[in-house]
Amino acid sequence: MKLYHKILQLLYPPKCVLCRKLLQPQETDLCTQCRADTPEVSGTKGKFPYLAKWTALWYYEGSVRGSILRYKFRGSRSYCKSYGRMLAMKLLQEDMEFDILSWVPISSRRKWRRGYDQVALIAQAAAKELNVSATPTLRKIRHNNPQSSQKDAAARRANVLGAYRVIDPEAIAGKRILLLDDVLTTGATLSESARTLLTAGAKEVNCATVAVAFHQRHNSR
To answer: What's the rounded mean pLDDT across residues 184-213?
Structure first.
């Protein structure tokens, strides 16, 4: 098995998930320059409906935006391990407590087209680092247009209204749910997901994302 991994590293040497430079032996996930130069999200104070707390790794701009677009639309599926690993570290640093680690699912149609649920993969990677299980709590029951195609926050909220259903209400009753997602923009998707869970009996819903829209920066100081 060790030989197999060595061969893989020779054929596909690890690269920084942000700038795509080859990583040095002492580097993991990010190169030293990106780790130093990419602004981290801290002191998150902006509030979103139905979410008790939220956190994110970075702002959705520059190399972070490029990285996520490659992950979602250009086949860079392996990024999930790095995103998950770094999200797990973030959750430990912020002492984010939860009973169930879950994620915001995509529709079956979108999963079929993309070939994978990008957030499910991140959740599984983060759960592995935290030594917990990633548990599906929601099912997307309506295939809506991408949120990025909506003109404003009101349109985004309307676009996801009623789009999710709780898989097993008994399993989440009285539980603190941690939802993972890739990008937090206006909060419409995560708020609707949280509302659905709370209505079904969850005690509290928090979220963590790889990135948050730059316009939330002033709320995070």
So the answer is: 95
